[in-house]
Amino acid sequence: MVLQYTCRDQSVITTLSTSCQESNWKIAVGGGSHVIDLKLIVDTHLVGKPSVGVVCNGKHIFPHSDNDRAKLKEDLKWQCPFRGTIVGIGERNCFEFKPEHGDGDLWYAATVLEQREDGLFKVAVSMPAGEGGLRVVEFPAVKEELLREAEGQKRPVKTPLRSLILQVPMADPKSSTLSVDGSTLMTHFFFKTNSGTFKGTGRQFPHRFADTNEDPLSCLTRWVSGHFRTGTRSTVALPQWPSEADSTGCIEG
After folding, report:
1. Helical segments of the chain, H only
2. Which residues contact 10 (CB under 8 A, 6 or more apart)?
3. Which pLDDT value is given to residue 144?
4. What pLDDT is stored for residue 105 in this prediction?
5. Can you say whether the dihedral through the CA atoms of 140, 143, 149, 150 is positive or negative?
6. How confident is the model at residue 89, as a pLDDT?
């Protein structure tokens, strides 16, 4: 889930040069247990190749020196692996649990309450309580191999391994892409609004999704790209986890 995205040039940030553009992504992965803060700076004011800087959670990814940015000698590809989130968290008795030191092949109805950052799961299990009764017991750190699906083929739980991939082409760094697994662009992980509009403190996003069949994320991406091609001053930000009462994005400018 994209918590926040901004793309700004010198008209918004006075410390940047006139040919510099800064993009910032704040992304929650692993069910929100870990946040990746990624910044890309592209400066085209130098003669020849543009200079680029990439910072992740305060650590310089490129260049590796103390400089903020440097010229690319080849296309840059940065990859950050992370654990994906299993389907069915919070759904009552969606899984079955086998005690690690239990006898035989006994499985019990289980609800996964939480997927932990270390890959383990917090699970509530319906265990026998004597005289045919049941009691719910919580296990705070369950390995995935002790869980399986409750329905269908009862497949074992497998946490998906994903990768956040930033690709910066040497010829045109401003055409950089950020994706999951190299195939799904991060624009697909913006939240969608209930009302079909993005609005902010400056002005309302000039497109009502309710009046068109076009995908709202495509609208947002096209609108932002058009503003930067024409040099229009813009700041785009999506706030954290909107409530159902005010599920909106934020366009400032």
Report:
1. 216-229
2. 16, 17, 18, 19, 20
3. 97
4. 87
5. negative
6. 95
Question: What residues of the chain score a pLDDT lower than 50?
Answer: 11-13, 192-217, 223, 227-253
Q: What is the pLDDT of residue 48?
A: 67
Q: Are 42 and 50 in contact (CB under 8 A)?
A: yes
- C-alpha distances (whole Å) from 19 to each of 41, 228, 234 are 11, 12, 15
The CA distance from 67 to 90, in Å, is 46
Cis peptide before 63 (omega within 30 of 0): yes
pTM: 0.66
Give burial (CB, 10 Å; 0-12/13-18/19+) of 63: middle
- Burial class of residue 50 (count of CB atoms within 10 Å of its CB; 0-12, 13-18, 19+): buried
pLDDT at 181: 92
| Neighbour count for residue 93 (Cβ, 10 Å) | 15
- Distance set, CA 63 to CA 58, 71, 78, 213, 230 (Å): 13, 9, 12, 43, 29
> For residues 153 and 19, what is the distance between their CA atoms, to the nearest angstrom?
57
